[in-house]
Every structure is written in C-alpha cells, then in structure tokens.
Amino acid sequence: MDKRNFLKTIGALSFSPLLSANELSKTFSIKNKLPKIENDEELWKEVRSHYTLKDEYINLESGYYNIIPNPILENFIKHVKHVNVEGSYYMRYDLKKNKDRITSELAKLVGSSTDQLAITRNATESLDLVISGFPWKEGDEAIYAKQDYGTMKEMFEQISSRYGVINKIISIPNHPKNDEEIVSLYESQITEKTKLIMVCHMINITGQILPIKKICEMAHKYGVEVMVDGAHCVGHFDFSIDDFNCDYYGSSLHKWLATPLGVGLLYVNKKNTEKLWPLLANGIQNKSDIKRLNHIGTHPVHTDLAISNSIDYINWIGIKKKEERMRFLQRYWSDKLRNINNIIINTPEDINRSCGIANVGLKNITPSEMSKILMDKYKIFTVAIDYANVKGCRISPNVFTTTQELDILVEAIKEMSLI
Ligand SMILES: Cc1ncc(COP(=O)(O)O)c(C=O)c1O
C-alpha cells in the first residue's frame, strides 16, 4: 500500500462506528421514544400494542418469564449487532463503564446501592451462589419452606450431604391470619445452631407475599441471616431492598422487569460480601468487592445492555402504576371466584399479601386436568401446581392482559366447577 492509500485507509477507520459508552446509551435509549399518556385505559392499550401476542391462546402464564415488548426487543437486537461490530473493543473499553451504569440504574429501581448489587444470569444463580458459597460447618442449621422453589431446596439438600448441614422445613399456610403467624413459624425452628433462613418474597405457586422486613428483624435478634428469594418481585411491584435490611436477595430480571432471557440480580448486604465463596474463581483480590462473587468469564454482554431499556420501559409506565394494574388484574378475576362452591382460591384475600399472581383450584378436578381443559376447551394457557398445600392452576396475567380475557377465565372456571 502506498502512503496515500495508507492515509486514506486510516482516515476511513477513524469514521468507523465506534461510539463511546455515553453516546451508545443515548442512541439505544427508548426514553424519549415512548409517548406521554395521561389516561390509564389509553396507557394499557398502548402497552398492549407493544407486544406481539399469539392468537391461539390467552397467555396467563407470565410467571415463568415475561415476553418482552417490542421497543425493548428492537433495542436488544441493536445491542447484539453493535457488540458484534465492535468485537473485543467493546469488552476492553466499554463493558465496565456500561455495566457500572446499568448497575446504578438497577440500584435506583430496587432501592439499594451499587456496591451491594451484581448482575447475574438468573435467580437460580444468585440464590444458589449464596447457599453454596456460605461458610457452612457441620451441624449448622438452615430453615426454609416446602413452598420454596425446587432448585434452591435441592441446593440446601446438596450442602446438607456435603457439609452435614441440618435443614428444617416449615409449611406456609395459604391464608395466614396475620404477619405474626408467618414470623413465628420461622422463629419456632431457630436453635443456637441456625445460620440461615431462606424465605420467598413472593411464593411462586400462589403469589403470596411474605412479611420480609418482620422476618429479618426477628431472625437478626437471634443472629440468624436471611436470604430472600425475590424471583417474582423486581419489576412487579414497588419495594426497597435496603428497607428490608435482609442479608441476601436474589431475583430474575427476565420475569417481571421484562429483560431478555438470562438476566438476574444478586444483592449482598455489604457486611456479608467478604464471607461468601464465589461460584467461580477469579482474580479479584478485594474480598469486599461484590464483583468477586459473579465473575463468569465472557458472556452475552448485549443482554446486560438491554436491562437499561427494560428499566426505561418500566419507568415510563411507573412502577407504582404497574403494581396497581397487576393487583387490579388479579383481584378482577379472583374476587369473582371467591366463595363459590367447588372453587378454592389458594392466595390470601388480604390486599397486601399478593399482587398480580394468584392460584385457583377446583375440588372436583385435579390441577393437571384443570390446566388441560383450560387450554383445550377455553384456549387459556396456565400452569398446574400440585404440591405442598397448593392444588390448582397458577394464573399470572401481565400488563398486556385485558379484562375481557379475564372474563373468559372466570366463566370457564365457573363452568368447570359444575362438572
Ligand atoms: C420463587 C422462584 N425462585 C427462583 C426461581 C428461578 O428463577 P430462574 O429460573 O429465572 O433462575 C423461580 C422461577 O420460576 C421462582 O419462581
């Protein structure tokens, strides 16, 4: 290449599409692209128009994970393309800045600080990291509930076989009289050997919300730590993790925050960071740095970038408004089915003990038959739950669900109760 051509090539390269982290966040932001809507009914119509929904069935199974609205999806695809164009330049120069920025956006959303938060791949990783990385000694005790999530319970079984930890398992009533009933259930199992309580912020099979702050206050009096499984809570309703004063909190962001699949959050109270063992080893020497706990090597960083879009989207709706809508949708159908012969609502009636998710069972039909009839005859997609004290279908609508769809559910369940 002669000198002239060489200079031309360098000139062209300097106009290559490399953007700084700040420019990038502006270019890919959806903040100013979403319309300002004052009227609530108009807002929910606009929200629904952002989703590509299947005609074949009514989706009342958003609890597994949320499909994401098109404004987020389109940006996610842009992030994938951008990171692909940049190659390792992105990893070397922009990754850290972006991750720090997104962590601080998340900190605002969940009411905590960046030095106590890490972005993980899901709630399973966050919570299993704490259970497996806890400095267990033989004879230590842990407490959790039958209604907790399978893979966390299995991790407690694994550490029991591995370290000789004794697990105490309680059962949460579907209709507690008050907070004290729940708190004293956990308290009744505490001994001087108890080290850790796992508790669901929202029980996934019934949607029951537990009194986390009171459980933490009680446990801390005995010097027992509390790990909260909040898989269903971030982006679903408004709360502050710092306000709970819990020790650990794990959530899946691909559920109610509607990020692309493969994003979770881990909160570790900064007094506990040093004592946990990371899931995977890494070179971070500072033991109080939370980043030490979730170094996972090269991973799909474009997915992390989309978290920012999901936060913008939820801020556009307003987390309080979303909470109200989710609770309204749940009560819209569940209140119409309470106190009817053969129908059992497995979720507390107290408005503060649930939000968008609830569970309904039938005395005359098993849960698996019930979900099959709902799908085959009424084209309603739900999931059957049949364990512990819960027999029924979990109903999890979403911000795109209409009351007309819920009317179809109500009529279907009423008809089925007469079979
Ligand atoms: C209560 C609860 N905890 C943890 C999880 C695990 O979430 P993920 O599969 O996203 O890791 C779930 C998933 O449904 C859940 O419902």
Into which percentage range does the β-strand content fall? 5-15%
Q: What class do helices, strands and sheet pairing give?
A: alpha/beta
- Total number of helices: 14
Give the distance, in angstroms, between the N- and C-terminal Cα atoms.
Answer: 83 Å
- Number of distinct beta strands: 13
Hetero groups: pyridoxal-5'-phosphate
What is the residue-mean pLDDT, rounded to a whole number? Answer: 94
Strand order of the largest sheet: 2-8-7-6-5-3-4
Order of helices and strands: HHHEHHEHEHEHEHEHEEHHEEHEEEH
User: Into which percent range does the helicity of residues fall?
Assistant: 40-55%
Low-confidence stretches: 6-17
Main beta sheet: 7 strands, mixed
From the spread of the alpha carbons, the general shape counts as globular
Radius of gyration using CA atoms only: 23 Å
Could you please describe the fold and organization of this structure?
The protein has 419 residues and is of the alpha/beta class. 43% of the residues lie in helices and 14% in strands. It has 14 helices and 13 strands. Strands 2-8-7-6-5-3-4 form a seven-stranded mixed β-sheet, sandwiched between helices. The chain has a four-stranded antiparallel β-sheet with strand order 9-10-13-12. Strand 12 (383-387) and strand 13 form a beta hairpin. Helix 8 (179-187) packs parallel to helix 9 and helix 12 packs parallel to helix 14. The longest helix is centred in the N-terminal third of the chain and has 23 residues, at 88-110. Residues 6-17 have low confidence and may be disordered. The structure holds pyridoxal-5'-phosphate. Residues 122-124, 149, 200, 204, 229, 231-232, 252 line the site of pyridoxal-5'-phosphate. Pyridoxal-5'-phosphate binds at residues 122-124, 149, 200, 204, 229, 231-232, 252.
